[in-house]
Design a protein that fits this description.
This protein is an alpha/beta fold and about 850 residues long. The structure holds pyridoxal-5'-phosphate.
């Protein structure tokens, strides 16, 4: 019988904060025991020094010139460790730490101190890990764990790298990852199944101590993992893992539960701080999976980095690096001058600068310098520029930020990035670089821009499908969700009315159902903003009579864009004061203006044509001008109604001509209006609009009110942040305070009604085709056009099986003969979903029924409002 294979190793690593408390050591002991028990593995744990100790050791080194101060610094460290040993761990310091403290004192008195010899420095720095691992082993043994202690320097050997200086060869070393059977056998022969060792330290060629440098402990764990052929390396830290963006900038950033080595390397290199980029390569070379886990929340999946799983194309992360310096070099010689590139790059080498990104043209080379790779002081830059000036014209552009999209197969995704491109298109992009490994696309922009743009870009990446967050193998919960107590997801009204909705669905689907309480609550939210003088509901979002009545009751006016909408409003509310109605058409025929003027509603003119061509209509009338402030905003290109590409509004420089035309016609301009997009979350947007309107109004002189439009967004993704009404209100208060002489009007549509509506459908068929499962519904783009038209996301649930666990991802499709008839992709409906189940499409109260159509001769949905 063959001998049983030796139990595999699993390597765990704990950082400084994870070893500086007794309770944390209890956690380490428990995790070691559980890991060994569950996986039948042996466990090697690598630890950092106690928090702050490495810095204290570095300070001791920095003060080496003063013998007394060095000795005092050593004493302080002795005392810190002894106190931790006695007070925190309840152990006898003399028995546990005696030898270590002696070594520390001896180093302070070592003759190599005076000159701060590099080998002495390395030995001093090593004491932190030697002490913490010694303390931990003693504590865990006292808790009854049979644990061994091993000196990392017996296993990790440095390798030298070309161009490495003396300092780096001792204090920022790399170690060999070449598989060494003898060493592996020796390691395997150790008597303990649980072992404790140190991060950060290794053995130099001369037998002395060497230090791994930044990110050292993670890298040690990776080296150990490679060396012993571990089943995996687990990095235990104080965050849940790697995220799709920096969660402090982007609370909607998603936990990345699985990455391949190359992607993880790229994310770590372009900004994520969780893992040092250096620690990925050893695991990758040895094919050892690397896990990031949260010490405080071991139940979370963490991030698994491996090379085995099938790659998922798509953007995985968005990162930004600040402090980037661009150097732009214009050739002064001839076009395509031979040797120009070599000439300039040689000068960067001469100044010790390593180049990150490169953009070239026939006569220009622009490169970026990353501050994390370089010491880009102004002195160095000046010297470099002086030197470069011999061969080219130089321009330095700084400070910049590099915003990077990381993910496999970026090249195949360019068509999905139109929104991202247009977001950047509003700003100045200095350099675009697409990496040759097809893993990253980087935009270099002015630094001040970077932070503000990140949440928006992240949202656009998700909305466009470029970041495939429905891939549940790769994307976990959002940072925001992780911060919430278990199960505390958004409470939607329809959850509490499930039985009622199922009964209604039984009477026939497709069916829109509106919750009037939700509409009322939203209306009251806006009514509470005192800075707003008048509110108008844009009825095109949802003209259902019950909704119009509720909103009119709550004090809202109504905004119409056609004669048809006007007729509808006065049919539903015959007694409504026409002064509470706006008419804001686009390219409408003359008769519609005539109709609106006859009704006495506020009429908005959005080009010179009506005044020029039909002056008699406007004689003696008060009108509003629709201004295009020159920029647009919103969730999709098709809903951006400002800027050169949009058909709406008067460009600011065309206003004088229109004012003249109004005067000629005998019309008086009493209001200015702008509505430049829909689905906007950035509340600062309306302040910009208001500023343009106010300054235009100042020029005209007869204006009494400024209408800043609607466009308030909602969170279609239940994981995303709700519209920040408080921030919106603050902006409105500021606008009003800045220009109190103008009345402030707003006209939201979507925000008032979207969440109040659901679309109920019935499942027709469940079909598997070539690896994709589709659940058919009895209506699709004919009932709800938004997903097909805008690529919009709507949450979809199986209302019949609301409590069943999420299953394998499916595409939810309609019955229309168009490939675009998809309501949602990769949705995790319950696996038991079958014909006859009721599907609920959430947040369908705005731009739902109004865009429904009878394409394919399918009947329109029915509608009902819940009182
Ligand atoms: C559509 C529209 C609105 C409302 O837009 P929402 O994004 O639904 O808030 C406001 N004003 C005008 C002129 C509109 O056309």
């Amino acid at each position: 019988m063959p001998a049983a294979a030796p139990a595999p190793w699993i390597v765990l690593k704990f950082g400084g904060t994870s070893v500086s408390k007794r309770s944390r050591w209890d956690t380490i002991g428990r995790l070691m025991r559980e890991t060994a028990g569950r996986d039948g593995a042996r466990v090697l744990t690598v630890v950092s020094a106690l928090s702050g100790v490495t810095n204290a050791l570095q300070a001791l080194i920095d003060g080496h010139a003063d013998a007394g101060a060095t000795a005092a610094a050593a004493e302080a460290l002795v005392e810190r460790h002894e106190r931790f040993c006695a007070d925190e761990l309840g152990l006898d310091p003399q028995a546990v730490l005696g030898a270590r403290m002696q070594a520390l004192r001896a180093l302070a008195a070592d003759p190599r101190r005076a000159a701060a010899a590099l080998d002495w420095q390395a030995e001093v720095l090593a004491q932190g890990e030697l002490c913490s691992s010694t303390l931990g082993a003693a504590y865990l043994r006292a808790q009854g764990l049979d644990i061994g202690w091993t000196d990392a320097r017996d296993w990790l050997r440095t390798v030298s790298i070309p161009n490495q200086g003396e300092w780096a060869r001792r204090l920022s070393v790399s170690c060999s990852t070449a598989s060494d059977d003898a060493l592996r056998a020796r390691f395997a022969a150790q008597p303990h199944a649980l072992l404790l060792s140190q991060g950060f330290i290794a053995r130099a060629d001369d037998g002395g101590t060497a230090i791994l440098g930044r990110g050292g402990s993670d890298t040690s764990a990776a080296y150990f993992g490679a060396l012993v052929g571990a089943r995996r390396v687990e990095i235990w830290t104080d965050v849940p893992g790697m995220f799709s963006a920096n969660p402090r900038q982007v609370p909607d950033a998603r936990l990345l539960t699985r990455l391949d080595y190359e992607e993880a390397q790229e994310i770590a290199t372009t900004g994520a701080k969780v893992l040092h980029p250096r620690c990925i390569q050893p695991c990758r070379d040895a094919g050892v999976p690397l896990w990031i886990r949260d010490t405080d929340r071991p139940e979370l999946p963490g991030t698994e980095i491996c090379g085995s799983a099938a790659p998922v194309p798509g953007v995985k992360a968005l990162s930004s690096r600040r402090g980037i310096v661009l150097v732009s070099m214009e050739s002064i010689g001839m076009w395509q001058q031979v040797g120009f590139t070599a000439d300039v790059f040689e000068r960067f080498k001469r100044h010790g600068l390593s180049i990150d990104l490169i953009g070239t043209s026939q006569t220009n080379i622009t490169v970026s310098l990353d501050p994390s790779e370089n010491l880009v002081s102004s002195n160095v830059l000046e010297a470099l520029c002086a030197d470069l000036a011999h061969v080219c014209r130089v321009k330095v552009i700084a400070p910049c930020a590099a915003i990077t999209l990381v993910g496999r197969g970026i090249r195949g995704l360019l068509h999905r990035l139109t929104e991202v491109w247009s977001e950047f298109g509003r700003e100045r992009v200095h350099l675009i670089s697409q990496s040759s490994n097809d893993l990253n696309l980087t935009f270099v922009v002015d630094e001040e821009l970077a932070d503000g743009i990140m949440p928006r870009l992240h949202g656009l990446l998700i909305a466009s499908g470029a970041m495939p967050v429905d891939e549940t193998a790769v994307f976990g919960p959002s940072w925001r969700r992780l911060g919430l107590p278990e199960g505390a997801r958004r409470e939607a009204w329809w959850m509490a009315r499930r039985d009622d909705l199922l009964d209604r669905a039984a009477a026939g689907t497709p069916r829109y159902v509106y919750d009037l309480d939700t509409v009322r609550a939203r209306a009251r939210g806006l009514a509470g903003i005192a800075a707003v003088d008048r509110r108008f509901f844009a009825i095109k979002a949802n003209p259902h009579p019950a909704i119009l009545r509720v909103l009119a009751e709550e004090g809202s006016g109504l905004e119409c864009v056609s004669a048809g909408e006007l007729a509808h409003v006065f049919a539903v509310l015959p007694d409504l004061d026409p002064g509470r109605v706006l008419f804001t058409p686009s390219f409408a025929p003359r008769a519609e203006y005539a109709d609106a003027l006859a009704r006495g509603v506020h009429v908005t003119v959005d080009s010179v044509a009506p005044l020029r061509d039909w002056p008699e209509l406007f004689a003696g009338r008060e009108i509003t001008l629709r201004i295009d402030p020159g920029f647009g905003s919103g969730h999709h290109e098709k809903v951006r109604t400002g800027g050169k590409g949009a058909k709406f509004g008067l460009a600011v420089d065309a206003v004088p001509a229109v004012v003249a035309a109004a005067a000629a016609a005998g019309a008086r301009i009493v209001g200015l209006h702008a509505h430049i997009g829909s689905g906007i979350h950035d509340t600062a947007h309306w302040r910009e609009v208001h500023a343009v309107l106010a300054s235009t109004a100042d020029e005209i002189g007869t204006v009494a009110f400024l209408d800043i439009g609607g466009g308030l967004g909602i969170a279609y993704d239940p994981d995303a942040e709700a519209f920040d009404l408080a921030a919106y209100a603050r902006e409105l208060v500021e606008m009003k305070a800045a220009r109190p002489e103008y009345a402030l009007w707003i006209e939201p549509g979507r925000w008032l009604v979207a969440e109040a509506g659901v679309l109920l459908l019935t499942a027709t068929q469940v079909v598997d085709k070539q690896g994709v499962r589709r659940v058919g519904a009895d209506a699709g783009m004919n009932a709800l056009l938004r997903p097909a038209l805008y690529g919009a996301f709507h949450e979809i649930v199986n209302l019949s099986r609301l409590d069943a666990p999420p299953g394998t991802p499916v595409d939810v499709v309609g019955p229309i003969c168009e490939s675009g008839d998809v309501l949602g992709r990769r949705r995790r409906l319950p696996d038991a979903t079958r014909e006859g189940d009721v599907l609920l499409v959430a947040d369908a109260g705005a731009y739902g029924m109004v865009m429904a159509n009878t394409y394919n001769q399918r009947a329109l949905p029915v509608e009902e409002a819940l009182a």
